[in-house]
Design goal:
single chain, 72 residues, alpha+beta, two-stranded antiparallel ribbon, 3 helices, elongated
Length: 72
């Protein structure tokens, strides 16, 4: 049996590790973890995500609006 970690966003499963290339039966177990979405990049561009840049992204929209409109 092989265990692979992934993330389910409500529609699709995003695997975080390579899966075997052979057809197999699988068991999906959902883990109740409320904070999982904050730690894992998801979506079609997630393979390009850089965890080190996450802190730079936080508040980026707000900073851009303050810079553009000057109300902060």
């Amino acid at each position: 049996m092989t265990e692979i970690t992934g993330y389910y966003d409500g529609n699709t499963v995003q695997l975080l590790e390579a899966a075997p290339k052979t057809k197999q039966r699988v068991i999906v177990t959902f883990i109740d973890d409320e904070d999982v979405s904050d730690d894992l990049p998801v979506g079609i561009l997630s393979k390009y995500a850089d965890p080190a840049k996450k802190l730079l992204e936080e508040g980026a929209f707000e900073r851009a609006m303050v810079k553009k409109h000057g109300n902060g």
